[in-house]
From TrEMBL:
Belongs to the SEC23/SEC24 family. SEC24 subfamily. Residues 124-372 form the Sec23/Sec24 trunk domain. One of its GO terms (biological process) is endoplasmic reticulum to Golgi vesicle-mediated transport. This is Protein transport protein Sec24A. Residues 51-83 form the Zinc finger Sec23/Sec24-type domain. GO terms for molecular function: zinc ion binding. One of its GO terms (cellular component) is COPII vesicle coat. It holds the Pfam family Sec23_trunk. SUPFAM superfamilies: beta-sandwich domain of Sec23/24 (SSF81995), vWA-like (SSF53300), Zn-finger domain of Sec23/24 (SSF82919). InterPro entries: Sec23/24_trunk_dom (IPR006896), SEC23_SEC24_subfamily (IPR050550), vWFA_dom_sf (IPR036465), Znf_Sec23_Sec24 (IPR006895), Znf_Sec23_Sec24_sf (IPR036174). The gene is SEC24A. It comes from Zea mays.
């Protein structure tokens, strides 16, 4: 872990901090290979032996004053007794000091399952692509290229699902001899609930396919995906002229039911699922639709330099909360040059621990490279991060993508 302060010196008191007018904080990088000085951590396999403060439960570290049979907490100042074993462990003898006595940056392991038992208990990574069919051929070709790159970056043993959305939701089963898609229509006045559950349309075990044995059929399924045809748009003319002129995009309902679909196996089949949501324009159908009329767009454009845009709806913020509870993070890829109201949509990705990418055109998009690099980077889940400060400081706010998962 690396901890970098925004200023070279800490303010000595709150009054000085307020008077200087400078933002003060720290940037924390969990799982960093080196600390802020570039030094690697001192390592060990005896994390269970590390003493903890009886008052604030902070861990013993190099900054704690140490006596023969006691130590003082560097956070709260409380005095704590040392057991005979701990006193012997911390008897200073030069080069044989334990890791926590050699460095303030330590990486200690807790005893646990090893070997084949640990491998068997490891959670299976789950990835689902949600593709907007209310789009162009160029958009879909770009998304297909990006998903081919993603399949190359995914770890062996991963599970992959494929979903499409427009005025209907399509689920793909790629585990048979040929890919099969099953569709369910989204009611125009939908409140987020379909007439039938996705589990009844296709069991989750059929939807999530192992990439080791099904990569070729996933590729075949991608090649069958086509944009929403003109006759489908005409068939939905009853929902209003605006939806005939604009492609029908039931994004909110699709993500809502997909998250609920995955939540049934959270903690059993997987510990974290990632949804890659590909969007070619603003959601304009069913629950979560956004107001994109020209008057509002021009008004926002005129005041863009002076007005901080607010969420149009709390739908996506509530959906992000549901995603976190279901162990799902959403990466949103918007490839569009029209007003899409990312102010309302971004909370779904940011607050679920995902990322937001915006591309103004398909011609200049680096989507395949970006998704490959994103999946090639190390990331962690199912973790607990605790931040403790001395009594002179308190955590006022945080800006991050870490959530209680």
């Amino acid at each position: 872990m690396a901890v970098r302060a925004s200023l070279a010196c800490f303010p000595s008191d709150p009054a000085l901090h307020a008077a200087c007018g400078m933002p003060w904080g720290v940037a924390i990088t969990p799982f960093s290979a080196t600390d802020e000085r570039g030094f690697p951590p001192a390592t060990g396999a005896e994390g269970h032996l590390l003493p903890r403060c009886q008052s604030c439960f902070a861990y013993f570290n190099l900054l704690c004053p140490l006596d023969r049979w006691s130590w003082n907490c560097a956070i709260c100042g409380a005095e704590n007794d040392l057991s005979a074993d701990a006193a012997a462990r911390y008897a200073r003898d030069g080069g044989h000091d334990p890791p926590e006595m050699r460095s303030a940056f330590v990486d200690l392991l807790l005893p646990g399952e090893e070997g084949e038992a640990a491998a068997a208990a490891a959670p299976t990574p789950v990835y689902v692509a949600a593709i907007d069919l209310s789009s162009s051929e160029e958009f879909l070709e770009l998304v297909k290229s990006a998903l081919q790159a993603a399949l190359e970056a995914l770890l062996p043993g991963s599970l992959f699902g494929l979903l499409t959305f427009s005025s209907k939701i399509g689920l793909y089963d790629v585990q048979g001899p040929i890919p099969i898609v099953k569709n369910v229509f989204i009611p125009p006045d939908s409140d987020g609930a379909l007439q039938v559950d996705l589990e009844d349309i296709m069991p989750l075990c059929s939807f999530l396919a192992p990439i080791d044995s099904c990569k070729d059929r996933i590729t075949e399924a991608l090649e069958t995906i086509k944009p929403m045809s003109s006759w489908e748009v005409a068939a939905n003319a009853h929902v209003g002229q605006d939806h005939v002129l604009h492609h029908i995009r039931g994004f909110g309902v699709a993500l809502d039911v997909l998250i609920n679909y995955l939540s049934s196996e959270y903690g059993n089949a997987f510990e974290l699922a990632r949804i890659f949501a590909f969007l070619s324009g603003p959601p304009n159908y069913g629950a979560g639709q956004l107001d994109i009329n020209e008057d509002q767009n021009s008004g926002k454009a005129r005041g863009a330099d002076h007005i901080l845009l607010q969420d149009q709806t709390s739908f996506y913020r509530n959906l992000a909360t549901s995603a976190v509870q279901a162990g799902v993070c959403v990466d949103l890829f918007a490839i569009t040059n029209e007003y899409t109201d990312l102010t309302s949509l971004k909370v779904l990705s940011v607050e679920s621990g995902g990322s937001l990418f915006l591309y103004s055109s398909t011609d200049e998009s680096t989507l395949p490279q970006d998704i490959y690099k994103m999946l090639s980077r190390p990331y962690a889940f199912g973790c607990v991060m605790r931040l403790r400060t001395s009594s002179q400081f308190k955590i006022a706010d945080s800006v991050n993508t870490l959530r209680d998962m």
